[in-house]
Structure formats: structure tokens, C-alpha cells
Structure to design on (420 residues):
């Protein structure tokens, strides 16, 4: 269900009597349960700096797939917002269809753009061709969430004893089951954009897509599918939906929960009374993953206005939320990392020292790899095909991973453009 409460709350931050004197822009973002609190912190700071701009919040997108579909529909109807937040893996389609505007004309006018924390490594996440089309707002990596009170039942009583490989996770599941824990582990297969499949592929330093080629048919793809099958069966993992899985972990019912770092803040605010820690994402070997996909989203300018004042106001909002104190609020209120060097290394240095659960992903930054999109017009359909296949592993519908590899590879490849 779309969240309209956010729009009502933020509307109160502007004085209605002066609305006619302000430049009004519209903004839309996903995941209200993660980001409402972030924008509640950012908005007063922006209003204080730019009292002549009013930001109207649209109903939130339910997911990155919903964000992409909504923008594509609104582009046809001529009803686009001025700024939209899109998943890092969903930016390319908006660029290819001419919906997103290049930010280069605005960037070239910024004398201190680099000093604000933007540098090529960060901007590359939203660079297409030679132009920057988005400013990354939040970056996530997969991490392990642990209830150390329950982990102690398996003899794991310190972070240095936490599993470093998926085989060790399965062994821990066995010990926890013997100790009477009904659901020892949930692994977030159903997170948006087949992100955890890509995590297993990048763990082997293998991209999931090369050009228009879906690489699941290669040796690394079979390793990824077999690893999932071993985890799901070895840990007797139930087919929880996203809300149930997070609620169960927060309630103190699940000892091990593998998820995006994005939800650390949410869990810390809602969890029961137990010792909660995060730790590095396990790998296929004791050396850990060779790479991990960067999750998160970027702010993109999609305004259909020709008014220079509106475009300038939209740029000021877009830049404010992705730099300095605006970006820092991402880390303070969620578990995301701001993809902004100044925010991470200067403003938040003391914050990470005091909030170690949110520092885990920062330690993993050297593993950062692209969160890949499936090329062409059928990218969302390909995502759904893979989702359905993985769910079949969870439910036990599929037991032969080589057969599943062949079926998924053929079906997804047929959805992608030819010419690989």
C-alpha cells in the first residue's frame, strides 16, 4: 500500500500562507519504513537553508521495481515528479529512454563539487557514457545480523566465532536446532532485484550479466544455486516474506539473519531485549567474498518543467540530500552508507566508532561491485523469472540445481536482447 502519511507530515513543514512565494518541486522515494525518518531529519535543514523552496513529497514507492514501473508510466502520462529516487540497478533504463536528465550542466556550475565529497569512484555508480545522471544517495552491502544471546546456545559467544563461510552457517544451524531453536537462519533471497543471487556470483568475482549475456549458465552459477539449496535445506529455512523475516529477527526469534545493512537502524529501533551485532557477510571460503553488489538508490532529475527556477530548485534539493549533513543523516537514521567521502570520512568518523553495527558495511567497501540490471525492455520480467526460480528452491519444488540452472538460463536469456 502506498504511504500518503509521509506527504501529509512533510507538508506541515512549510507555511501554507507563503506557498505562493516559493518554488515548488515534487519528489518521490521508495521504502517509507526505511527512509521516512531520514527525510524527517533532512527537511528542516533544507528548509532553513532554502526557505524559498517547497518540496512536496509524493506517495512512496513500495520497492525499486515499483519505482521503476511508476516512473515509466508517469513519463508516458506526463506526470513525472521533479526528482525521483531509483535503485542503482534501475537507472540505466531511465537514461536509455531519455527520462533522466544529465546532471552535467549543473555540476559544471559547482565550483566546489569535488570538495563536497563527490569523486569519480562514487559518481561512477550513476555515470552512463560520459555523463552523470544521478547522485547516489545511499549505499548498502549485505551483512550478517546476529542475536548473540541465541548464538550462545550453539557455543558462539563472541564475534570472532561467528561464521565466516556458508558451510559454517549450515553447521551453526545444526547446533542451534539441537539446542531447540526452531528457525536458526533466514537468508534474504527475496530482497529486491535478485540482489543475493548477485552477491553469490560476485563472491566468486563473477558478474551476473556480461553485455547481454546472462552468466548463470557458467560454473559460478551452479555454485550459487547449490549454495542456496544447501543453505535452505541445511537450515530448514521457512519461506518467510520480507516483513515476517525482519519482524521475527527483531522479536528475538531468529539467531542469524542475512540482509542488507539498510535495515540496521530499523532493527535497532524495534528489536526486543537481546544483544544484537552485525558482522561481515560470509563467503564461499574462509577468505570471504571476492566482491559484493552495491545496493541502494540514487537521486535522478526527471522534471518535465522548462522553468529554470524549478530546475534550479530541483538541483539544490538533489545536491543537498546527497552531500554534507544531508547525506550523513542516511547513516544516522538507517544502516545505509552515504556514497559521499566527506560524509563518511569526516562528518561520520566519530559516529561509526560509536555505532559499530553500522560500521560493518563500511569495512566491506573494498568489495563494492555493480548491482547489475538485466538489459533491454524485459529487465523486470527477467527479475521475476529468477525470483520464482529461487523461491522454488526455498519451497523444495526444485531439487536438481543443474536442471534449474539450465531452465533459468534459457528463459532469462530469451528475455534479453540478442547479440551477446
Amino acid at each position: 500500500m502506498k504511504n500518503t502519511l509521509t506527504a501529509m507530515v512533510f507538508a506541515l513543514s512549510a507555511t501554507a500562507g507563503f506557498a505562493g512565494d516559493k518554488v515548488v518541486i515534487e519528489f518521490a522515494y521508495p521504502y517509507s519504513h526505511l527512509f521516512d525518518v531520514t527525510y524527517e531529519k533532512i527537511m528542516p535543514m533544507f528548509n532553513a537553508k532554502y526557505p524559498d523552496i517547497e518540496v512536496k513529497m509524493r506517495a512512496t514507492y513500495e520497492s525499486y521495481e515499483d519505482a521503476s514501473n511508476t516512473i515509466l508510466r508517469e513519463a508516458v502520462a506526463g506526470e513525472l515528479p521533479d526528482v525521483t529516487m531509483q535503485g542503482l540497478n534501475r537507472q540505466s533504463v531511465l537514461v536509455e529512454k531519455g527520462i533522466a536528465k544529465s546532471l552535467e550542466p549543473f555540476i559544471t556550475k559547482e565550483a566546489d563539487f569535488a570538495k563536497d565529497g563527490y569523486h569519480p569512484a562514487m559518481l561512477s555508480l550513476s555515470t552512463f557514457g560520459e555523463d552523470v545522471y544521478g547522485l547516489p544517495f545511499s549505499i548498502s552491502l549485505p551483512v550478517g545480523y546476529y542475536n548473540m544471546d541465541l548464538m550462545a546456545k550453539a557455543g558462539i559467544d563472541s564475534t570472532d566465532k561467528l561464521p565466516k563461510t556458508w558451510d559454517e552457517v549450515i553447521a551453526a544451524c545444526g547446533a542451534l536446532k539441537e539446542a531447540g531453536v526452531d528457525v536458526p537462519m533466514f537468508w534474504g533471497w527475496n530482497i529486491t532485484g535478485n540482489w543475493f543471487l548477485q552477491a553469490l556470483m560476485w563472491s566468486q568475482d563473477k558478474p551476473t550479466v556480461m553485455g547481454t549475456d546472462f552468466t548463470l549458465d557458467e560454473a559460478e552459477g551452479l555454485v550459487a544455486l547449490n549454495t542456496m539449496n544447501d543453505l535452505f535445506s541445511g537450515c530448514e529455512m521457512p519461506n518467510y516474506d520480507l516483513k515476517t523475516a525482519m519482524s521475527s529477527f527483531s522479536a528475538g526469534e531468529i539467531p542469524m539473519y542475512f540482509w542488507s545493512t539498510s535495515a540496521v537502524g530499523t532493527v535497532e529501533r524495534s528489536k526486543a531485549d537481546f544483544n544484537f551485532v552485525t558482522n561481515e557477510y560470509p563467503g564461499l571460503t574462509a577468505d570471504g567474498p571476492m566482491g559484493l553488489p552495491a545496493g541502494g538508490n540514487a537521486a535522478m532529475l526527471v522534471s518535465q518543467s522548462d522553468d529554470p527556477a524549478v530546475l534550479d530548485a530541483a538541483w539544490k534539493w538533489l545536491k543537498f540530500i546527497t552531500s554534507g549533513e544531508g547525506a550523513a543523516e542516511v547513516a544516522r537514521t538507517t544502516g545505509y552508507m552515504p556514497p559521499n567521502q566527506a560524509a563518511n570520512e569526516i562528518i561520520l568518523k566519530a559516529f561509526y566508532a560509536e555505532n559499530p553495527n553500522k560500521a560493518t558495511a563500511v569495512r566491506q567497501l573494498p568489495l563494492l561491485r555493480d548491482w547489475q540490471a538485466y538489459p533491454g525492455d524485459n529487465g523486470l520480467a527477467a527479475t521475476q523469472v529468477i525470483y520464482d526460480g529461487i523461491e522454488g528452491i526455498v519451497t523444495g519444488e526444485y531439487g536438481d540445481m543443474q536442471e534449474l540452472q539450465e531452465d533459468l538460463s534459457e528463459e532469462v536469456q530469451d528475455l534479453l536482447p540478442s547479440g551477446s
User: Anything to note?
Assistant: The domain at 142-293+374-415 is CATH 3.40.190.10 (D-Maltodextrin-Binding Protein; domain 2). Residues 325 and 343 are 7 Å apart (CA to CA). The mean pLDDT is 91.
